[in-house]
Amino acid sequence: MNLYEHTIVARQDVSPSEIKQITEKYSNIVTKNNGEIVQTQNWGLINLAYMIKKNKKGNYIHFKIKGPTSIISDLEKNESLDKNLLRYMTVKVKKFDLDTNYFSKKEDEEKTNAKKKDEN
Amino acid sequence: MQKKRNNNKKKSQSNFAKLSIFQNNRYKFKKKCPFSIKGAPIIDYKNIKLLKKYVSENGKILPSRITNVSQKKQRELSLSIKRARNLGLI
């Protein structure tokens, strides 16, 4: 079992309901492959440092995944075909730090805290 | 009078010894690596605020001889900066 951090950049004109669909779609792929999503973070609309496919902004979604390597190949296969996405990146990590969220607004932080309480 | 002169000579010699190459140089001004101190921040591709300190205005990575980052940490830094670039964060 490995630990991965997976980030997706979606196009700027994707509606919030579609973002939910996207997150569900990829989290389903993870669970199908015997993986487990430890945490999902929605960083929201962030200004891109440079234009990517004529987009000035991007919707960032961040997953923390625990599971076998087959997840990543399956995820990236689907993401390369997805037209709503601009970029994706996976990073293998030794340890998750679940506390810090560098992009969180205050509302998001409260939500994540509430989720943690529910899990406990 | 002679005695005093001798004392002066000795003092001057001792000062010279301090400046020799083989002695440990106390007068060097060298900053420590900002990531090797206790309580230093963890280098992460998500921490843009931190990474932007080590990037020039044009987006180039600053050399470690300017920022005094140790070699090991500079490698980590450059990797995480490149990751952030790929995601369009920097």
Computed Rg of chain A:
14 Å
Apparent shape of chain B: elongated
Rg of chain B, Å, rounded: 23 Å
Distance between the termini of chain A: 23 Å
Query: Biggest protein-protein interface?
Result: A-B, 17 and 15 residues
The unreliable regions of chain A are: none
Helix-and-strand structural type of chain B: mainly alpha
Give the total of beta strands of chain A. Answer: 4
Distance between the termini of chain B: 72 Å
The SSE string of chain A, one letter per element, is EHEEHEH
* Count of runs of 4 or more consecutive helical residues of chain A: 3
The strand count of chain B comes to 0
Percentage of residues in strands of chain A:
35-45%
**Total of helices of chain B:** 4
What summary fits the major beta sheet of chain B? none
Order of helices and strands of chain B: HHHH
Q: Explain this structure to me?
A:
The complex is a heterodimer of chains A (120) and B (90). Chain A has a four-stranded antiparallel β-sheet with strand order 2-3-1-4, with helices on one face. With 120 residues, chain A is an alpha+beta fold. The longest helix of chain A has 17 residues, at 16-32. Chain A is 36% helix and 40% strand. In chain A, a hairpin with a 2-residue loop joins strand 2 (36-52) and strand 3 (55-67). Chain A has helices at 16-32, 70-81, 106-119, and strands at 2-10, 36-52, 55-67, 85-93. Chain A is globular and about 40 Å long. The two termini of chain A are 23 Å apart. Chain B has 90 residues and is mainly alpha-helical. Chain B contains four helices and no strands. Chain B has helices at 2-18, 48-53, 64-67, 71-86. The longest helix of chain B is centred in the N-terminal third of the chain and has 17 residues, at 2-18. The model of chain B has no long low-confidence stretch (mean pLDDT 79). The chains are: A alpha+beta (120), B mainly alpha (90). The interface between A and B is medium-sized, with 17 and 15 residues.
